[in-house]
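Q: Joint fold for the lines below.
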Amino acid sequence: MREEILRVQHLTYEYEPGHPAIEDISLSIGKGEKVAVMGANGAGKSTFFLNLNGVLQAEKGEIFYQGRQIGRKDLRNLRRHVGFVFQDADNQMIASTVEAEVAFGPVNLKLSRQEVKERIDQALDYMNLQSYRKRPPHDLSGGEKKRVSIADILAMKTDIILFDEPAAALDPFSAEMLEQVLSDLSKEGKTLLISTHDVDFAYRWAERVLVFDQGKLAADGKTLEIFLQEQVLQQAHLKKPEMLKIYEILLERGMVYEQSYPRYAGELANCLGGTVYGE
Amino acid sequence: MLKEHKRNRRRQEHFHGAAAMDFYACQSEIRHWNGCYKVVSAVLVLLLCIILDTYLVSVFIIISVGALNIIGNGIGFRNYLALLRVPIGFLFLASMAVALGISAETAGDWSISLHWFWLYVTKAGLARALELFLKALAAVSAMYYMALSTPAGELASVLQRMHMPRLLAELMHMIYRFIFILSENHRAMKTAAVSRLGDADFKTSCTAFGQIGGNLLVLSLKKANAYYDAMVSRGYEGEFTFWEEEKPLKKWQILALVCYLAVLILLWMAEKL
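A: Joint structure:
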């Protein structure tokens, strides 16, 4: 059982009165958890993240960080612990150089100059961006901008990082690199929440899935449990992951016997290997 | 090295106008010089150019600052000339207006009949126009030295340190970022319009232009909101504070500036006395 780091209770947010973007969301996030937040466009995922980060303040409901309730005056404090990587990196970049951009958060945290400098170096090293540090953001490619936007948040050293569709518009190489970064961050004990439409990625990476549908939390559970619920997937306009589909076909044809749903191609090959050569 | 150079060449071909200036400023060999020093030295040269007001001083500034822009900023002679093309064209037309006179009958040292009136020039008028042209070009060179070695974001920070109102400096920062975001979107929209025959004739071009303008306005409003959310999420509390690299002022730089200004004054004295 993981130690609770973030909890929301009956969270409701309305952009327009009478039309809640998220409604009555209650859940608890454990420290170091890898959570995929899924749902159709407009299901409320980004609004949920903006509330968790304290940019938006819900009319109803409470947010607890490490057991302490976050009030209106503590929103600033919440941002120190919950970082948010926006979907469109261009919307996140403010400064005129990559270095100044990464420093924006730490400078706002009122850290000493030496500390800010160290954090810039660490974040740029982590995202392999040292050679870009003097470049202006508009001079970068989409993948490079995404890396800078992640470095922005890493430099703030938040315990929880929210990623809003991080792989959107990335080429396969950049997406693979991003996945590696997410794995590394998770190993370092960061709590990660990722909003995504990519069911294959969510199935592979997440240990828990939250499914949003029309502003409501339609399902919350372990990754495999969620992806085996056809009704939930249909309701949230999601598809079954390809790996799961292949495995089920093989299972149906009697080519694999073990009920150990594989996440990676290697695991699937192992299931087959046992059948073909072991028999 | 060659690969990097070729890559830079390719990248710079995509930039025009203000974007090209910013591109060169980011690549400048003297970018690491103290920002305040660059702004102050450029302004001092500009002021002396106007106050001293002689051919020799103007020509010296055009050549020396031009050399600094070409070699120091690493722009290259052709690119520098390309950047100067517009101001030189403008200054040439303005100087012509000063040099030329209109008269009902023949006048001045040289004149030409244009049926209804005479266009004439005098030697004194030509000299005045040349003086004005050189002085203005020298002033433009000095400003180019500043613009080609200091990226716009750094320039805003320097101006803020020089007690420019914070609001204006922050606006400069925002506008700087938005110019690139909106121009990128404009380019994408224009390409999309052209790909669907949005430029088939004058009428469709005008319609597409209007629609792109309208879309850009809506987009800029949406982007402004998203931008604000992103800033707040990283601790923005109503005041921009940007990280600035430490660029200490060196003694030789001060000495070089003093010597340069002294040379300008000596040239002025040599011409006047």
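Q: Anything notable?
A: The two ends of chain A are 39 Å apart (CA to CA). The CA atoms of residues 40 and 236 of chain A lie 6 Å apart.
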